[in-house]
């Protein structure tokens, strides 16, 4: 397994540069295909990248935006990743993109998984992937100790799985490892010393203990203090 580690002078520079790289990747994908899937994480780290990326000059009407995972809360909840996308990515030029939902009103995440996956399946593979990572080495909602982690890491995993984990305050719906790892262009965004050390500590560990290892091969890791 090999990846590239890119260190930036500060978080603002990282956000600008990474947004440019993602936009470049999308343009490249759209030069070869009619449509391209951009999969992005929620959480706190990607907001500044979205603020820059949303203004990128590319044909957003041919882009499908997909979350890597969603917290099962209503889309107006402050912890909703869908809300983050609507407020910070699907604005400006990127408002022309289409959102592939990871949320279904009135259903629990177990019931919604199959229907939402059927819609996503027709658009795969992911052309451009951005992932986050937690200090516990989780990525998307593939958490160490999660109830269905083994299924989510399996080569035969379905596209989406509900996931409950001690480290996650609410049930989650997550893309599984084969879907994430199968992305054509992969980026991981991490900030701070704690996460850099976690990434180093992940070396050589099994994905059950360090789920990030399931998706790192060929990825570019973007890091700033
Ligand atoms: O919904 C989520 O929480 C995510 O998609 C998750 O995988 C996230 O990327 C990491 O937990 C890092 O989160 P931060 O960027 O907030 O540290």
From TrEMBL:
- EC number(s) reported in the record: 3.1.1.31
Q: Name one GO molecular function term.
A: 6-phosphogluconolactonase activity
Q: Which NCBIfam families match?
A: pgl (TIGR01198)
Name of the molecule in the record: 6-phosphogluconolactonase
Presence of the UniProt keyword Hydrolase in the record? yes
Provide an example Pfam family for this protein: Glucosamine_iso
Q: Which domain of life is it from?
A: Bacteria
Q: Which UniProt keywords apply?
A: Hydrolase
Mind telling me which InterPro entries this protein's record contains?
6-phosphogluconolactonase_DevB, 6PGL, Glc/Gal-6P_isomerase
Spell out the CDD domains in the cross-references: 6PGL (cd01400)
What metabolic or biological pathway is this protein involved in?
Answer: Carbohydrate degradation; pentose phosphate pathway; D-ribulose 5-phosphate from D-glucose 6-phosphate (oxidative stage): step 2/3
Reactions catalysed, semicolon-separated, are: 6-phospho-D-glucono-1,5-lactone + H2O = 6-phospho-D-gluconate + H(+)
Function statement: Hydrolysis of 6-phosphogluconolactone to 6-phosphogluconate.
Q: Does the keyword Hydrolase apply?
A: yes
Organism equals Thalassococcus arenae
Write out the similarity annotation: Belongs to the glucosamine/galactosamine-6-phosphate isomerase family. 6-phosphogluconolactonase subfamily.
Ranges of residues in domain Glucosamine/galactosamine-6-phosphate isomerase: 9-223
